[in-house]
Amino acid sequence: YIPPLIWGKSGHIQTALYGKMGRVRSPHPYGLRKYLTMPDGATATFDLFEPQSEHCIGEDVTMVICPGIANHSEKQYIRTFVDYAQKNGYRCAVLNHLGALPNIELTSPRMFTYGCTWEFGAMVNYIKKTYPQTQLVVVGFSLGGNIVCKYLGESQANQEQVLCCVSVCQGYSALRAQETFMQWDQCRRFYNFLMADNMKKIILSHR
């Protein structure tokens, strides 16, 4: 692999370019928002997107997607991924992390965490009940990768109807990663500040 000159050789430039281009060229797939009441009173939400063409193997396949930290179905990278999946015959269900959507109020005294699989599990169970013949492709981005892998490992029953699991850019050790994020080398500490500031905004929006 030979990366393109200039932007292809720098992760910083790639991040900045996609942040700009994504706002202009990002698709807007149409989906239905579903609401699920959790046992503790929390209101979980996910967006459901139907396929726009027949799947290449002619079967019913649903991608159950868990976004990255503080993310939801309205983020540009999720919309781009869903649009591509729909056009290739996949149904998509995208979890909205508890507390991440600005227009959805919390109905219990908690928001999403690094290890809680309750909302994702509720979404998967809804899909299995509504589409009993569907096969599942489990997809997790970053923090979502941790959640989906933990979910599949919690119970053998959680693996039923699952064809495969794809974990994209998953972090494996929060403690070791934090040591790296505290370094100034390659501006890592700057990203740590941005992520922490984003989390603070979400928490304060629900105070």
Automatic annotation (TrEMBL):
GO terms for cellular component: sperm flagellum; sperm plasma membrane. Pfam families: Abhydrolase_1 (PF00561). SUPFAM superfamilies: alpha/beta-Hydrolases. It comes from the Eukaryota. One of its GO terms (molecular function) is monoacylglycerol lipase activity. Residues 62-204 form the AB hydrolase-1 domain. One of its GO terms (biological process) is medium-chain fatty acid catabolic process. Gene3D superfamilies: alpha/beta hydrolase. Belongs to the AB hydrolase superfamily. AB hydrolase 4 family. This is ABHD2 lipase. The gene is Abhd2.
